[in-house]
Amino acid sequence: MSLLAPPSRRSIPTALRHTVGPLRARSFRRWFLSQVLSGSGAATQAVGQAWLVVQMHRGGLALALVSGAMFVPSLLFAAPLGALIDRFDLRRFLIGTQLAQACIAALLAALTALGFVAIWELAILALATGIVMAADAPGRQVYAIRLAGD
Fold first, then answer.
1. Any idea where the domains of the chain sit in the sequence?
2. 35-74 pLDDT per residue, tens
3. What angle do CA 84, 86, 92 make, to 5 degrees?
4. pLDDT band at 9 (very low <50, low <70, confident <90, very high)
5. Within 13 Å of residue 39, how many CA atoms lie on the same side as its CB?
6. Is residue 59 classed as helix, strand or coil in its secondary structure?
7. Of these four, 12, 48, 67, 137, which has the most CB atoms within 10 Å of its CB?
8. First-to-last CA distance in the chain?
9. Chain-centre distance of CA 75, in angstroms?
C-alpha cells in the first residue's frame, strides 16, 4: 500500500477505534478532561504573563527573558527528571506538580492584583513554572500510558 493511496474503508474505523479507545475507560476520561483544563490554564497563564511583560516594558528583551525562564528548564531538565519519575508514586507526584502550578499562578495573580509585580518577580515565577513543567510533562506522558494501556 502506497503512502499516497487513499485509506481503505476498513482502516478508518480501525484507526478511529484505536484513537478513541482509551476514552472508554472512566479513569482515562477523567484524566483527559483534567488535562484539558490544566492545559488551558497553563496556556492562559503563559499568554497573560507575556502580555503583562509587554505592557510593563515595551522592549522585547524583557519578554525574551521571562519566556526563556519559563521554557529553558523543560529543555534542560525534562529528560533527567523523566528518568527519576519512576521512583515516586506517579499519581501523588502529578497532584503535587499541579498544586505547585496552582500556587505559582495564585501568587502571580495576587502580586499583579496588588500592583507589586516587577520584571524580576515575573522572571522568577516563570522559572518556577518552567521547573514544575519540566517535571510534570514526562510524568503526564507515563501516566497516560498507564491509564490507557499499551
1. 54-150
2. 898 889 889 999 999 999 999 987 789 999 999 999 999 9
3. 105
4. low
5. 8
6. coil
7. 67
8. 26
9. 13
